[in-house]
Write a structure and sequence with these properties.
About 30% of the residues lie in helices and about 20% in strands.
Length: about 375
C-alpha cells in the first residue's frame, strides 16, 4: 500500500533559506500546494505569511491560528463567499484583473488594498488550461477608471510566470511587463509600492534548475533598470517550500516486461500525483538492483487514462516491490489546487531514508 510521509521541518528549512537570501523578495507560502495542518502550523510558528485562493485554505490557516494580517487572497476572480470570509478574517491584500472584479471587491471588502494581476505568457513547465488569467496591458485603462471612484486602493502589480518556471529570463520578462503596468498606475494617480512576483520557483525533480538566488538577481537587475524606486517585493512559492518535505512510497501492482517494460503503481493521476498529467516528471527510485531499462510508468487506471511517465529508468521489478518518489510534498496528497482525492495513509515525522542501492542505481542510469 502506498504511504505518504511528511516532514514539516523540511518545509520550514526551505522557507528559512528563502528569507535568508540577501536582497531577495519577502515570502508568502502558497497554501494550495500543501495544506496539511502540521505543515501550516510549523510555517506559522516560523513567522511565515500565506497566500490563499480558496475558502478551505483560509479555514485551514484559521484553524492553526494565523491572523488575517499575514494572509493575502491572491486569486484575481474570487467568489463572493471567499471575499466575505477574507473580510471577516481581516485578510490584508487582494488581487483584481478587471473592472468587474474591482467593483466586486469594493462592494464586498470596502477599503481593500489590491494588486493589479497581469496576464503573462506561460513560461513554467506545467501545461495550463487555455483560459487566460489576469489583465492585458491594454485592458488596464478600464480597470483603473473603474477603481478611481470606488473604495479600493490599488497598491501594486501582481504577476505569475507559471508553476515550476525553470528559465530565469521568464522572470525578467514578467518584471518588465509589470514595470509598464506600474507606470500606468502612477500616471493614473495611484501610488503603487508593492510588486508581487507570485509563485513558480522551481524544484530539481530530475535535474538542476535555477535556484532562488539566481532568480532574485534577475529580478533585482530588471527592477533597478525599469522602476523609478525600489518596490516592496514579494514572491509566493508553494512547490519550493513544500516539495522536499514529502516522500511518497508506492507499491508495484504489475510489471510487464518487454522492449519498453510497463510498471503499474497503486498511485496515479487521480490518486496522489495529479501534476503528472500536466508535465511534472518525478524521480522513481527502486529498492532493487539490476540492469536499467527505459520504462513506462502508469497508475491504477492503466496507460490510456493514468500515464505517469514515458521514460523512467528502472531495474526489473515484481508486484509488491516499492518505489520511492522524493520531493513529493507539493501538489500531491494534501493539496487544494486539484479536485483529486487521495485516500493515502499519512505519516508525519522525519522522512524514512531512501535505500542507498536505490540511489546508486538511479545515479548510474542513463
Amino acid at each position: 500500500m502506498a504511504v505518504w510521509y511528511l516532514d514539516p521541518a523540511r518545509a520550514v528549512q526551505a522557507y528559512q533559506r528563502l528569507i535568508a537570501l540577501p536582497g531577495a523578495p519577502r515570502v508568502r507560502y502558497a497554501v494550495k500546494s500543501n495544506s496539511h495542518p502540521t505543515l501550516l502550523a510549523a510555517l506559522a510558528a516560523a513567522g511565515a505569511h500565506f497566500a490563499v485562493v480558496a475558502e478551505p485554505e483560509l479555514r485551514a490557516l484559521h484553524a492553526v491560528g494565523v491572523p488575517g494580517q499575514r494572509i493575502a487572497c491572491v486569486t484575481p476572480g474570487p467568489p463572493a463567499a471567499l471575499l466575505r470570509a477574507c473580510r471577516a478574517a481581516g485578510v490584508a491584500l487582494y488581487a483584481v484583473d478587471s473592472a468587474w472584479e474591482v467593483r466586486k471587491l469594493a462592494a464586498l471588502v470596502p477599503g481593500a488594498a489590491a494588486c493589479v494581476y497581469l496576464a503573462l505568457p506561460p513560461a513554467g513547465r506545467l501545461r495550463y488550461p487555455v483560459a487566460r488569467v489576469g489583465a492585458l496591458l491594454d485592458e488596464l485603462d478600464a480597470l483603473l477608471a473603474a477603481a478611481r471612484d470606488l473604495s479600493v486602493r490599488l497598491v501594486g502589480v501582481q504577476i505569475h510566470v507559471g508553476s515550476q518556471c525553470e528559465r530565469p529570463e521568464a522572470w525578467g520578462r514578467g518584471v518588465e511587463l509589470a514595470a509598464a503596468a506600474w507606470e500606468r498606475l502612477r500616471t493614473g494617480g495611484w501610488q503603487p509600492y508593492l510588486l508581487n512576483l507570485g509563485g513558480g520557483l522551481p524544484v530539481p525533480y530530475r535535474g538542476p534548475v535555477a535556484g532562488p538566488a539566481a532568480i532574485a538577481r534577475v529580478v533585482a537587475r530588471i527592477v533597478a533598470q525599469r522602476f523609478p524606486a525600489a518596490p516592496q517585493l514579494w514572491w509566493e512559492p508553494g512547490r519550493y517550500v513544500a516539495a522536499d518535505a514529502g516522500l511518497l512510497i508506492a507499491t508495484v501492482q504489475r510489471y510487464t516486461p518487454g522492449a519498453r517494460p510497463m510498471v503499474q503503481l497503486d498511485v496515479g493521476r487521480y490518486r496522489g500525483l495529479p501534476e503528472a498529467a500536466r508535465g511534472i516528471r518525478y524521480t522513481y527510485l527502486a529498492d532493487r538492483q539490476g540492469p536499467l531499462a527505459r520504462c513506462i510508468v502508469v497508475g491504477p487506471l492503466g496507460p490510456d487514462y493514468d500515464l505517469l511517465d514515458r521514460a523512467a529508468w528502472l531495474p526489473p521489478l515484481a508486484p509488491g516491490d516499492r518505489l520511492w518518489l522524493p520531493r513529493a510534498g507539493a501538489y500531491t496528497v494534501a493539496q487544494t489546487a486539484y479536485a483529486v482525492a487521495a485516500d493515502l495513509p499519512v505519516v508525519v515525522g522525519a522522512l524514512p531514508p531512501v535505500p542507498q542501492k536505490a540511489v546508486a542505481a538511479t545515479v548510474a542510469g542513463p
